[in-house]
Amino acid sequence: MIDRSLTLRLLSASTLALAFAQPALAQDVDSSDTEATGAEVAENGQLDMIVVTANRREENLQQVPVSAATLSADATRSIFDAGADITALSAHVPGLFVESSNGRAAPRFYIRGLGNTDFDLAASQPVSVVMDDVVHENVTLKSFPIFDVERVEVLRGPQGTLFGRNTPAGIVKIDTVKPGDDFAVTGSASYGSFGSVAIDGGVTVPVAPGLASVRLSGMWQQRDNWVDNGFTGEEDAYGAYTDIAGRAQILLTPSDRLSILGSYSIRDLDGTSTLFRANILGPGNNDLNENYDRDTVFYDAGAGNQAQYKAEIITGKVDYEADFATFTSITSWADSEGSSRGDIDGGFGASFLPVMGPGFIPFPSDTQDSIELDQFTQEVRLASNGGGALDWQVGGFYFDSDFDVTTVGFDFPPSVTVNHTNESWAVFGQVTSQLTDTIKLTGGLRYTEDDKAFFVRDAADPQAREVSDERLSWDLAAFVDLTADASVYARVASGFRAPTIQGRDVAFFAPPSIATSEKIMSYEVGFKSELADRRVRLNGAAYFYNIEDPQFSAVGGAGNLVQLVNAADGRGWGFELDSAFQITPNFLVTAGASYNNTEIRDENLAVGICAQCTVLDPIVNLSGTDRALVDGNPFPNAPEWIADLTARYAIPLGSVGELFAYTDWTYQGETSFFLYDSAEYVVDNQIEGGLRVGYAKQDGTFEVALFARNITDADNVKGGIDFNNNTAFVNDPRVIGLSVRFDY
């Protein structure tokens, strides 16, 4: 077996060494091929064209009948200046929310309010993460770090026609930099508060120009311990992490028609899992109280809240361009393994022990989850080469995963290992017809079959379960050019999430739970425009969707359960607005906003409630247990408002350099954490900002800057644990530092 840790360190070390040692060798590269830093403006002061691949082919964002938004490589690097994980993408695009109660290991994505609050490593999510054309289905793969990135796209609404893994909500699509025919080297390095280090680099080496090229890229993020343990008196006991990842790619082009791209990616994470903090909310409100101290926790268990995860992804992509169409094959193998442990009650002692705190602790909770995962995917596509009145593509997709999840309690519950398998296949097609010079119609159809199985390993009763479903997904869109610079579109799309099995409660002597398929119908109208000689871009969309049998996870409650439930119905409506303003050639402002109104519609759906918080829903007693009726409540972790703002202003210094200031801000409106409504577990008006001030070359080849993330040091609650006490966890602190970037 490959020594992945050694391979990763050799790959990352060699990549970063090349990236930071060789910029002088790249001076002959034409600077016009590089991407402008920060503002990314065209030479004439216009906004750059944004290219997206929402339809599995490169297109101008302004010509795609989908609500989509992008983050450029430069904006993405700014977000990760302080070594943040993938959850830092949250709210940087209207309609996108990302959170995690598993540290840097298992993020949860939400688009237009649709997601899954289940913290288990086997959780199913309605948002797909697709990196370099490969779906990252399991939550541990979705946490794979973003580095050496070309762009990040967020496609909102059902995308089931061309992307076939659980896409009723949308897709986060990540494309990394690929090998090319020219030598190129890019890199960034930053150092900041708490010993925060973030290094990201990539090198392209044309081995045989026109025939073979290699790109090596790597990432190293780390932070020192900075949180004290107030119970033991140990200083700087928690908060550290080291996250290393690398990627090696080789591109072979034996002819003008044939290209073969091979990729090997690897990750090694060793860090601190989420720090839960006992009784820091309320009671009776959502304010942080006197038990809260960002720099201190009070733990008597958890063994340091350690989290260790490794991942390995191998992908082969073949493109052959025939006279009439291009054939594409994408084959990928991925595996992930690791574990995380935490002091889940967030405090020390218990009500039946001599001491306890902070606040009331009914009982201690210390658990560890681990996973061993294998995933295989195969996709084939045949797509017309475009340029005519009719564009089309057809294809097939196969998915297979097999993984074990082990839950261990210290001292409860006893160790239990469960196995999940999932096999799915699909065939799909899409046609786009240019009916007239101004009207374009697009239609897509996909047939999917999805089978899941579950059993308990090493148990007298394996509690085996199997679920299966087969569905047609379809979409139809019309796109109309009103003028050369403005267009409108309408889109109707269906999607579904296959039946799901959740077996975490087996560890707590309860049977696995099952949710049947959820089916979504989405209706969307939008506009896209570029005004003032392409110095203003305004794109917007309004939507309504209805979900039949939506899948929800009833997480926590006094019974500490993770149970899948189907509501009778769910609805959502809202809008998104994306804009950019090139006010002057040296001053760029972007702004986005989304409003999202979601509603659970089921008069009989009752779920477990918290142990200590203030429940605002009607309470019923079922079989001796109090439950909350959640009809009319919003979906959990579905912010009503999300907004983002960036601005970059530069002062030229001669013809070569410039002084610049760049700032980015996000806003998250009212958000309820659970299915039931409570005074404590809802947040509102959360704001975070970042700032960069420095010197850059105008051609984008070099930049040095002072930066700050969470510049106001805002204390924002990001989630809660409700089964024991009013426990919550918070965002990262302010980090101030220095960064250097180059691109040759």
UniProtKB/TrEMBL annotation:
InterPro entries: Beta-barrel_TonB (IPR000531), Beta-barrel_TonB_sf (IPR036942), Plug_dom (IPR012910), TonB-dep_rcpt-like (IPR039426). The keyword Hydrolase does not apply. Residues 61-171 form the TonB-dependent receptor plug domain. The keyword Cytoplasm does not apply. Gene3D superfamilies: TonB-dependent receptor, beta-barrel domain. Keywords: Cell outer membrane, Ion transport, Iron, Iron transport, Membrane, Receptor, Signal, TonB box, Transmembrane, Transmembrane beta strand, Transport. It is a multi-pass membrane protein. Residues 1-26 form the signal peptide. It is found in: Cell outer membrane. GO terms for cellular component: cell outer membrane. Residues 283-685 form the TonB-dependent receptor-like beta-barrel domain. GO terms for biological process: iron ion transport. Belongs to the TonB-dependent receptor family. This is TonB-dependent receptor. It comes from Qipengyuania aquimaris.
